[in-house]
From TrEMBL, chains A, B:
Gene3D superfamilies the record matches: Hypothetical Protein Pfu-838710-001 (2.40.320.10)
Domain of life the protein comes from: Bacteria
Active site: Y30 (proton acceptor)
CYTH domain residues: 2-150
Protein name stated in the entry: Adenylate cyclase
InterPro entries referenced in this protein's UniProt entry, alphabetically: CYTH-like_dom_sf, CYTH_domain, NeuTTM/CthTTM-like
Length: 156, 156
């Protein structure tokens, strides 16, 4: 149970790949994707999680989050219950000073979309911006994974 | 992970109360209550559960179900994220031959509503009908707890 403070950016080139210290294959779907509450089923490599998030605050940075690890086989069955469509992506982790960027490269209907997220301790905390970091899209609902699942990048 | 086969009936008098071998106070809400998938948070006495159910089949009796016990304090926080409104009820368990009836007496906005459910091994299995058992409402969406949560008995 925690509050997330996150800022989100587009990624303008591939340089982050050589800086990544970890890489995961992620498949995820939504059992609910409305703006007041999301229920997400995620398989990340060999682990699976059920995650419930509340409404995002006005500035788009703070959000209630609850997460439990679940059985991978059960997660595969739960993915079949999810709203269309299922998201496929690779997540790269890149260290930058004392922060970590999570960079998601999307595939399938979202091919061409790459987004970076950084978690902060307060809404005003400063952080380093690597050369591959582009325009900020924090709070832009279109870039929520729950939105991308309903309205994929190829339709934008 | 299981398939539920259930039949549901209205209850016409209080006689079931003296036959009950167990009684639980239940508080539950929905993180999703659409017809293709429901995500339920339930606190039953001192235990709490997160339950995900799939779409009901055409005859209204068979349904995919996944359930995990969760922390009661966390469940109380998750109830705050649920769609309005939260359901308050007492569940009575009554043995009838080799079956068990679950009888829910609702309170608050659903005062006056009492519903009994029986779980069967197959859709055609026979079972005993006690004197307090009334009209069958199996498959009637209005009596789903997920529907009652959105459209309580007092509005019917």
């Amino acid at each position: 149970m925690s509050l997330e403070i996150e800022r989100k950016f587009l990624v303008v080139n591939d340089d982050f790949k050589s800086e990544a210290y970890q890489k995961k294959t992620i498949k995820q779907g939504y059992l609910n994707s409305d703006k007041n509450r999301t229920v997400r089923v995620r398989i990340a490599d060999n682990k699976a999680f059920l995650t419930i998030k509340g409404k995002t605050n006005l500035s788009g940075t703070t959000r209630f989050e609850w997460e439990k690890e679940i059985d991978k086989k059960e997660a595969e069955e739960l993915l079949l219950l999810c709203e269309p469509s299922i998201i496929d992506k690779t997540r790269f982790l890149v260290k930058s000073d004392h922060h970590t960027y999570e960079i998601d490269e999307f595939y399938g209907d979202n091919n061409g979309l790459i987004v970076a997220e950084i978690e902060l301790n307060s809404e005003n905390e400063s952080f380093k911006k690597p050369n591959w970091l582009g325009k900020e899209v924090t709070g832009n609902v279109k870039y929520y994974n729950s939105s991308i699942s309903k309205n994929p990048f190829k339709n934008w």
